[in-house]
Amino acid sequence: MEDAGRPKDDGFRALACLDGASTGIERRxxxxxxxxxxxxxxxxxxxxxxxxxxxxxxxxxxxxxxxxEVVGVVEQCGAEVxxxxxGDRVVVAHHVPCGECAYCLAGSETMCEEFRENRLSPGGFSxxxxxxxxxxxxAMRTIPDSLSDDTAVFLEPxxxxxxxxxxxxxxxxxxxxxLGGGSMGLLHLLVLKAAIPDALVGVVEPLEDRRELALSLGxxxxxxxxxxxxxxxxxxxxxxxxxxxxxAGGSGALVACLELGRRGSTVVLFAHAGAGEQAGFELDRLxxxxxxxxxxxxxxxxxxxxxxxxxxxxxxxPAALVSARVGLEDFSQALELVRDxxxxxxxxxx
Length: 350
Hints:
- By secondary structure, this protein is an alpha/beta fold.
- The chain folds into two domains: 12-143 and 317-348, Alpha-Beta Complex (Quinone Oxidoreductase, Chain A, domain 1); 158-295, 3-Layer(aba) Sandwich (Rossmann fold).
- 30% of the residues lie in helices and 24% in strands.
- Strands 3, 4, 5, 6, 7, 8, 15 and 16 form an eight-stranded mixed β-sheet that branches. The chain has a six-stranded parallel β-sheet with strand order 11-10-9-12-13-14, with helices on both faces. A two-stranded antiparallel sheet has the order 1-2.
- Helix 7 (208-216) links the parallel strand 10 and strand 11.
- It is globular and about 70 Å long.
- The two termini are 31 Å apart.
């Protein structure tokens, strides 16, 4: 018999992919968490460049709900959930490696087949999500009162950035350059300064307002692309950077990164290229100058743990990168802001 004193649960709204690159709000039926799962009501979800890439590629089946940078409140815990209670404010990442396969054991956790599974259902661009057991166990964290939503929502992307920094081999006191001053480029700046406090970090960005923001966030220089080589030479005594992080993507950006590094330096790819795009640089230069070219696709639990500790310590606070908020019904506005480069990080507030 229905409880007359309890309001009827008619489900929740979710922003779903439709045909092609279009999206629309759908009402989904009520969900109940299973054993070791949690039902979370969303507070904010960050709009990631990967979300935009997937939409523009029209690669998602109709009904898919994107969004994976989430902060919410636990509404209900399934049986056997430990460490969380209804009312807890939490942040959770959507990917968790198995920890046991050949990839995980070799340090390539982000290549694990289980890591590729999305542990959030239906996705962050919705009012509610079910967090799967693996994520509840390994990738969900209670947010203390000392951290804002705007800070905590960067946990997953900060972990991705930190993995690239670790893969770069950048040493304390080393010189680095970030190509691109968008939200992910500036997040690189902040994570570099938090993880390696005495590292030198320059940002190369065509838009003046973003160059100025980079300086205010602690960049040692901020340069337009046409003056980048001179700025790096001044910073490094003419040697070139020890590590260059490509957050722009594409063959042209890769060549630009190689020009900014010293002999023996590392370029970290941290951005999508166009479909089928090929690299175009002189192989002998890579060989004779003993350069390293590495990719950083995502971040595993180890990187999430380390990024979280940087946030808890106060060393990392990316909240200044949040420049707009929109509701689910204004998602198209969020896309326009990012595509027109009128916003850095946009938060969707379901």
